[in-house]
Amino acid sequence: MKWKIGCIQMDIAFGDPQQNFIAAEQWFEKAAKEQCSIVVLPELWTTGYDLTRLDEIAHEEGKDVLQFLQEQAKKYKFHIVGGSVAKKAEGGVKNTMYIIDKEGKLVHEYSKLHLFQLMDEHLYLQAGQDEPTFTIDGEEAGSFICYDIRFPEWLRKSVVNGAKALFVVAEWPTPRLDHWRILLQARAIENQCYIIACNRVGSDANNEFAGHSMIIDPWGTIIAEGSSKEELLLSEINLQEIDEIRSRIPVFDDRRPKFY
After folding, report:
1. For the whole model, what pTM was predicted?
2. Identified catalytic residue from 146, 171, 193, 198
3. Is 36 a catalytic residue?
4. 2 is catalytic
């Protein structure tokens, strides 16, 4: 299976979902012109980290976001890894990712498991308890949000369950750009899989965000990397390469999980 990936490395209008819907639609049009098969948005792309106003601006059961993403997927006939949004539901607000196939069907929903206390997520968001693994185009993949990548055992779970590509969406800050790059390459190497990581750019009152979205192959080689500016990062990946790479260094045959 070959995929042409388009990572939408966008700036985010702080606390303004409607403005961000308009921007995302323009990016989707650009991705369609590039004939992308999977398009990826960044974390909290409708609101940014306007956490103190989530009661006002979070999406009720995610309905409007889900409808928008489904319409865009059907219109342009590509799959969408829908970044994440603040989804308001019974019990609180979660940081939730939707995966939509090219027919407009919701195939997976994942809410961020690991909340990042340095940006006060634990004060305003509820942690998810969803499984990260999903199927698209008949292939297994994993879904993760930002801080999740610091927990290698969480990403490994999807790969053990068959994932050949791990999608990461983020609002990763500039001061820790080196961590972003190193952690993602490590996750690719140790799991012998593709990493598709979409980060935002721009800033809010408290943070500057790094961009540098990346697509990394199973050897840990960065095959595409964004700048610190808005852009559509493009690359093709071939999942058939993974079996060959894993046969050369048989990490998964040599695992001894009963000792871990």
Report:
1. 0.97
2. 146
3. no
4. no
